[in-house]
Every structure is written in C-alpha cells, then in structure tokens.
Automatic annotation (TrEMBL), chain A:
It is an enzyme of class 1 (oxidoreductase). Its main location: membrane. It is a multi-pass membrane protein. Catalyzes quinol oxidation with the concomitant reduction of oxygen to water. Cytochrome bo(3) ubiquinol terminal oxidase is the component of the aerobic respiratory chain of E.coli that predominates when cells are grown at high aeration. Has proton pump activity across the membrane in addition to electron transfer, pumping 2 protons/electron. It comes from the Bacteria. This is Quinol oxidase subunit 3. Keywords: Cell membrane, Electron transport, Membrane, Oxidoreductase, Transmembrane, Transmembrane helix, Transport. Heterooctamer of two A chains, two B chains, two C chains and two D chains. It is found in: Cell membrane. The chain crosses the membrane at residues 20-45, 65-85, 94-111, 131-161, 173-196. Its EC number is 1.10.3.-. The keyword 4Fe-4S does not apply.
UniProtKB/TrEMBL annotation, chain B:
The lineage of its organism: Bacteria, Bacillati, Bacillota, Bacilli, Bacillales. This is Quinol oxidase subunit 1. InterPro entries: Cyt_c_oxase-like_su1_dom, Cyt_c_oxase-like_su1_sf, Cyt_C_Oxase_1, Cyt_c_Oxase_su1_BS, QoxB. Binds a copper B center. Catalyzes quinol oxidation with the concomitant reduction of oxygen to water.
C-alpha cells in the first residue's frame, strides 16, 4: 500500500504494508526458532548414540570450526553495518558491506562443506549412527538456510541496483538482515552445544 | 529402494478399479464441461489466480466438502467391514490403508480447510479489514494445502496408500516394516500441506494484530476473531515441530538415516514424542475456532451479549497453553514411568477447567435469552451435551492408571469422535448455515437443514455410542475383524446402521447446497439473522473491497449497538475514498503445481527428477522476489455505484428471523 508514507520513520518502516511485512517476518522467525529448537532437541536425544561409530572427539576438527564461527560472526557485524549505511541513505557503502557479508557467508559455507566432505571420507556419514544423522541434519538445515540467504541476497542486490533505495527495497534489506542475524544466533548454539560440548563430553 | 514398479498402479481390487474409473470419468467430465461452457478463462481469472480472502475461503470450504466425502467413504467402508463378524469385504491390508487415510483426511484435509475457510471468509470482515495482511501469501497457503491434499489422495490409486495409522508410529512406519511407498506419501504430502498451514498462521496473527478497525481494542474483538488469533499462535508454535518430524521421517525412509529406526541408535519413541508435540496442539487448532463459531452463533440466536467474555478469552489462552504440555497422555503405556504419567495426567485433567468455564458461559448466554431455533442454533445446542460426553470420557482417559484399561480400544475411538464431531463438525455446519448468506447472497434451506441436523446428530450417536461399550468390553481399535464368539456383533451392527444414517444426513446437506443454489431466494438482507458483529454490516455477498468506509468500533458487538443507534445504513458518500486492492496472481497456483510435481517424484524416490522439479520452486521464488506489483485503486465512482445497488434494494428484502 504505497499511500500514507510516513517520512519521520526509518525508510523500511514508512509504509503500512512494510510494517506488516516486518512483523510477519518476526513471527516467521518465531516459527524458525521452534524448528531449530526441535532439531536441537533431537540432537540432544540422539547426540550420544554412536552405535559403535565415531564420536565427536574422533572426528570434529575444532580449528576449522573456529574459522567458520569467526567468518559467520563477522558477517553478522558487516550485515549490521550494511543496514546502518542503508539508514544513512548511502547506497555505495550499503552495497560494499552487504557484499562483504555475502563473501563471508560464502566462506563459511565453503569451510562447512569441506568439513562435511572430510567427515564422509572418514566414514562418518548420516547413515552411520543416530548421532551422525542428527548432526548432519541439524547442521545441514542451518547450512541450507545460509545458502538460501545468499541466493536471496543476490536477488536483492540486483533489485537495489535497479531501483535504488525505496521503502520497498529498504524493507527487503532490513528483513534479510533479520534473517542473517538469526542464522548467526543459531550458529552460536550449534558451536556451543554441538562442537564445544562434543569435545568436552 | 525396493520399489516394485510393476505394482505402481494398484489394480485388481474391484473397489479400486471402480474408483480409478470414477476418477478418470470425473476429470474428463470437468474438462469437457469447462470447455463446452467456455469457462476456462473465468476459472483462471476469478478463482485460480484470486487473492481475495472471501474466494480463497470458499475454495477451502469446497475442498473441505470434497474431503469430507472422501473421508466419509473411508469411514463407511470400515463400518461395512465390521458390521458382521469375520467379514471379507476388505482384507487386512486394505483396512489398514483405509483407517490411515480416514484419520489423516478427516483431521488435516477436512477439519482444517473447513475452519481455515471460515476464518478466511469471516475474520477480515469481523475486524473491518479490506483483506488479510498478505493476500498473495494467503493464496499460496491455500494452493500448497490443496497440492498436498491432492498428492495424498492419489495415493490410493497410484502406488498404494499409507497404512501405518494417521499417527504413523515407528518402527512400523519405517522402511524396514513398511517398504512400499505408501508412507512416503504421508511424509511428503503432509509436509507440503503443512507449509501452507504455517503461512496461514503467520498471516492471521499479523492481520488480527495490525488491521483491526479503529476503536476495536483486543477486548472488543468478536470471539471468533479471538479464537482465530490464538489458533494461529498455536499453529506457529506447533507446526514447525511437525515439519521437522516429517523431514526426519523422510530422511529415514529415503536416505537411510537413523532417527526413528531400531538399529544404529535410532529412537522410535522420539517419533511418538515429536508427533504428539504437534499432534495434541493440532487438536486445539481445530477445536478453538469451532468454539469461536459456537460463541457467535449462540450470542446471535439468544439475542444476548456473550456471557463472561473476559473469562472466555482467559479460557482460550489457558487451553492454548495447556495444549502444549499434555502430549504424553497419548502414550501412557509406552514406558514413560509413574512420575511423568502423573504430571501429564494432571495437566490433561486441568484442561477440563477452562473448557468447563466455556460450557457454562454458553449456557448462561442462553439463560433468559430469546432463543431462536434456527439450524445454526440447533447445531450449537446439540454440541453442548454431545461434547460434554466427549469431554468426560476424556477425563476418564486422562487418568493414567485407568488408561491402561481403555487404551487402544474402541472406547478411545468413541471418545475422540465425540470430541471432534460435535466440537468441530457441528461447529462447521453451524458456521456454514450461519455465514452462508454472507458468502453467497442466499440462505441454505432451513427445512432441509433441520432434516440434515436430526439425521446427522441421531446417526452420529447411534454410530459412536455403541463403540464406548465395545471398547469397555475389550474390542481393540484398528482390527479389521472379530470373531463371532467375542459377542461384539450386535453393537458393531448398530454402529454400522448408525453410520448409514450419518451418511444420509451428509447427503441431505449436499442436496441442500444444490437445492439452495438453484431455488433459494436471492433477495436476502445483508443482515438476515439480526446479528451482532461487523461482517453483517456490509453487503451479501460481500463486495470485493469489503467495506466502502471502514467502520468505527465503540464497544463489543459493535454492529448490534450501531443498529440500536440507527446508524447502520447511513453512508455519507463524501466519506468514500479510493480503495487500494491487491492484484491477482497466478504464481501461487504455479507454486502448487511445482510443489506437487516435486513431491510426487520424491514419493517415488526419483531424486534427480525431484531435484529438477525443485528448480521450478526456486524459479517461482525468484519471480516473486522481482514482483513489484503494488496492486491498484478502486475509484470513488465505482464504490458509489456498487454501494447504491445493494443499499437501495434494502427495503424490499426479507429478514429471515425476527
């Protein structure tokens, strides 16, 4: 609803439809929290059922995981910078920081896929044990979300270049930033409850 | 993995061959009919691409009627098979498939679309909104639901139906014990339909929170809107659990993982927990909107404000909360231990408290009211005693120690039919008779409605009351036959006769739709029941933009008080402003098609074909991302013309009651 633009608000909140979309996305993130919580619960139940296969300390390579973590956490920061410059109406810096965000995300994905391939070569596949089934599906769901986010972001960059900063493109930018930060939060839980706890336990 | 390709087209059984022929003939008849009457363009423009919440609601309801028919036939087949001892009408495998599809279809593809359909039609009107918050997403919700429903329904002619019960417990539902593809249909069709439901939940939360008419605070909302809001919250909280459970089932069945298997560390009880963590809230997802419908109907036809409005709201919120912490009562006997069972016994019994509050509120609403015995009201009246039987037997089942006696018997089956049929089906019928004129501009015939009502209610009781006693005598559920020596035969026969009466009742309903469509008077008023809420303020059928001017709400039962003040039909034409409306879109329908195709390939474990089809899904998302269509405006002149047509004829119309 393009009518009733309220210029006193941040760009992404200026139209009623934008406010509806942003609230709707927050509620969607609520559903995503339930989804990941369920996957964590499944991992909590099955995570120690090795069925004679490898255990976390047998296979996890904490160095790689630390790099993944740094890449993703940094990307969340740069994503915040991108939104900051969006509010400043600085299209150039917005794009620069947003593209850096995506490169960091792609780096994370590269490392994660490499990690998975390494596990599979060690004979730790998702068919090996309940632990590995729940590990790969939890991590894979997160990784699939990151992949989806990158494709979505590329679509958005094209639109930003085509249309500039309008309430509509700003809303899309803001929503994808919420999504990106959410994935980062999920990763913190994965790092803590899957990797660190796996190495300690 | 282990698919017998030569057995894909299920044949041989005369029942199945008959239905295959019937399906082909129906499809041919629809295609020929649409072409002959040149209706393809109309179908595409008016229905397949619509984003209008009222039309989407009607499509949901139509799907609900169709699925009721399918699920009902399943029920009749089961009743025919068990009418006499040691019958050979259905074999054990066929019986397994039929009780599975009966359960899934009745809950997910009958009750859900009926209620979501009514929510779609009514809620935006009740809150004075132009549409839902995300009209195109709403269309996508419907089409994904429809896609999932169709995928599930073709299973019985292509590849075989799922046969592990609607709960699909592992290890039975796993690849080891169910090697066919039937259970793949379960995992994938329900996943697609569930995505649609989740989006509906998000859509309605935002709509109700943000799009209410000025002055309508939360505590001035009609009760049906309240129940829709709480239901939507439960949907968002519970459906992702089902999404995960079904995804893990798919991984187990298609990719050999070990979530629910017996070997390699899997846990079959994990499935039972995940399933009921969603499944129990799901029961309340279908019952709460039904409570809302009864609240509207009882208040309208008692000519009184709903008694104890605040306690009603507190009760539904309480029920929603409790619905999340009772799931273990579905498997007391599956090794949970006394402490856990006690906890879940208490929480389960606690649900009787807010539900009892609601029952008393309905009774007090009727007290000293001037009750009108319309068909809609009859359903509400019959609901109270029948539902109480369901509720009281529920409390019996809630006692974990006693449950060891009743569980897995027909007592349980009778209990949940006594909850779900009076609770949901009666409500849907009440809602349909009540809101039908709002949807279509004519009423359903009241006389036929009363035949429908009496046949259905009597048939229902004759069918399910004997099952309580059968269960107490020890007749187990899901058994395809029983011996003559068991002594079960007379009650089973009574039950089978009841199911025929029930079916005749439903047939009268279908005939009523046909009769009313052909012959009912078209000059009904916009407010034929002398009702209380905003949806009755605008034309019947409702014009596409809903309200010429958004009404201002001052109190509960806003429309009733406006009528008292005599300000309902006065519309100052100077107040009319142009109205913004969303454009139609073919994308939701396209998404349903590609989701359906992808799902179909996944069912048959054709992974490469499924991956190729999934590219279609990504293309759909990309197209949506680049879609900046911002809708269009309805001009003031067009609104004035439309409003004059129905406001002028107002004097010549009939109020049905009062």
């Amino acid at each position: 609803m393009s009518a009733n633009v309220n210029h006193s608000l941040p760009l992404e909140y200026q139209t009623e439809q934008n406010r509806l979309n942003i609230l709707g996305f927050w509620i969607f993130l609520g559903a995503e929290i339930v989804l990941f919580a369920t996957l964590f619960a499944v991992y909590g139940v099955l995570g120690h059922r090795y069925a004679g296969g490898p255990t976390p300390s047998d296979i996890f390579k904490l160095n790689d995981v630390l790099i993944e973590t740094l890449l993703l956490l940094t990307s969340s920061f740069t994503c915040g910078l991108a939104v900051f410059f969006m509010r400043q109406r600085d299209m150039k810096k917005l794009l620069i920081w947003f593209i850096i965000t995506l490169l960091l995300g792609a780096g994370f994905l590269f490392m994660e896929i490499r990690e998975f391939i390494h596990y599979v070569h060690e004979g730790a596949t998702m068919q090996t044990s309940a632990f590995l089934s729940s590990f790969f599906v939890l991590l894979g769901t997160h990784g699939a979300h990151v992949t989806f986010g990158i494709i979505w972001a590329i679509m958005l960059i094209i639109q930003l270049l085509q249309r500039g900063l309008t309430p509509m493109t700003a809303r899309k930018m803001f929503i994808i930033s919420l999504y990106w930060h959410f994935l980062d939060v999920v990763w913190i839980f994965i790092f803590t409850f899957v990797y660190l706890k796996g190495m300690v336990g | 993995m282990g698919i017998k390709w030569n057995e894909i087209f299920v044949g041989g059984d005369p029942l199945l061959v008959g239905s295959q022929i019937a399906i082909v003939l129906t499809v041919v008849a629809i295609v020929v009919g649409l072409t002959y009457f040149k209706k393809w363009g109309w179908l595409w423009r008016e229905w397949l691409t619509t984003v209008d919440h009222k039309k989407i609601g009607i499509m949901y309801i139509l799907s609900g009627v169709l699925m009721f028919f399918r699920g009902g036939i399943d029920g009749l087949l089961m009743k025919a098979q068990t009418a006499r001892p040691e019958m050979n009408f259905l074999d054990a495998q066929h019986y397994n498939e039929i009780f599975t599809t009966h359960g899934v279809i009745m809950i997910l593809f009958m009750a859900m679309p009926f209620l979501i359909g009514l929510m779609n039609v009514v809620v935006p009107l009740q809150i004075g909104a132009r549409d839902v918050a995300f009209p195109q997403l709403n269309a996508l919700s419907f089409w994904l639901f429809f896609s999932g429903a169709m995928l599930f329904n073709i299973s019985f002619v292509v590849g075989g139906s799922p046969d592990a019960g609607w709960t699909s417990y592992f290890p039975l539902a796993g690849k080891e014990f169910s090697p066919g593809i039937g259970n793949n249909y379960y995992a994938i069709a329900l996943q697609i339909a569930g995505l649609g439901t989740l989006m509906t939940g998000i859509n309605f939360i935002v709509t109700i929170l943000k799009m209410r008419a000025p002055g309508m605070t939360l505590m001035k909302m009609p009760m049906f809107t309240w129940t829709t809001l709480i239901t939507s919250i439960i949907i968002v909280a519970a459906f992702p659990i089902f999404t995960v459970a079904l995804a893990l089932m798919t991984f187990d069945r298609l990719y050999g993982t070990h979530f629910f298997t017996l070997s390699s560390g899997g846990s079959d009880m994990l499935w039972a927990n995940l399933f009921w963590l969603w499944g129990h809230p799901e029961v309340y997802i279908v019952i709460l909107p039904a409570f809302g419908i009864f609240s509207e109907v009882i208040a309208t036809f008692s000519r009184k404000t709903l008694f104890g409005y605040t306690s009603m709201v507190v009760s539904i919120v309480g029920i929603a909360f409790l619905s999340m912490i009772v799931w273990v009562h579905h498997f007391y006997t599956m090794d949970a231990g006394p402490a856990v069972n006690s906890f879940f016994s208490i929480t389960t019994m606690l649900i009787a408290v807010p539900t009892g509050v609601k029952i008393f509120n309905w009774l007090f609403t009727m007290r000293k009211g001037r009750i009108q015995f319309t068909t809609a009201m009859l359903w509400a009246l019959a609901f109270v005693p029948n539902f109480v039987i369901g509720g009281v037997t529920g409390v019996m089942l809630a006692m974990a120690a006693a449950d060891y006696q009743y569980h897995n018997t027909l007592f349980l089956v009778a209990h949940f039919h006594y909850v779900l049929i009076p609770g949901v089906v009666f409500a849907v019928f009440a809602g349909l008779y009540y809101w039908w004129p709002k949807m279509f501009g004519f009423m359903l015939n009241e006389k036929l409605g009363k035949y429908h009502f009496w046949l259905f209610v009597i048939g229902f009781n004759v069918t399910f009351m004997p099952m309580f006693f059968l269960g107490l005598k020890g007749a187990v559920r899901r058994a395809y036959t029983y011996s003559a020596e068991s002594g079960f035969a007379p009650l089973f026969l009574v039950s089978a006769i009841g199911s025929i009466i029930l079916a005749i009742g439903f047939a009268v309903f279908c005939y009523n739709i046909y009769w009313s469509f052909r012959y009912a008077k078209r000059n009904v008023s916009h407010d034929p029941w002398d009702a209380r809420t905003l949806e009755w303020m605008t034309a019947s059928p409702v014009q596409f933009y809903n309200f010429a001017v958004v009404p201002e709400v001052k109190q509960l039962d806003a429309f009733w008080h406006m009528k008292k003040r005599g300000e309902t039909l006065t519309l100052k034409e100077s107040d009319i402003k142009k109205i913004h409306m969303p454009s139609n879109s073919g994308l939701p329908f396209y998404m349903a098609v590609v989701f359906g195709i992808t799902g179909f390939f996944l069912v048959f474990e054709a992974h490469i074909a499924a991956a190729v089809a999934a590219i279609g899904i990504v293309i759909g998302l990309v197209i949506r991302s680049f879609d900046y269509n911002d809708g269009y405006y309805v001009s003031v002149d067009e609104i004035k013309r439309t409003e004059r047509t129905w406001r002028n004829v107002e004097g010549g119309t009939e109020n049905h009651v009062g």
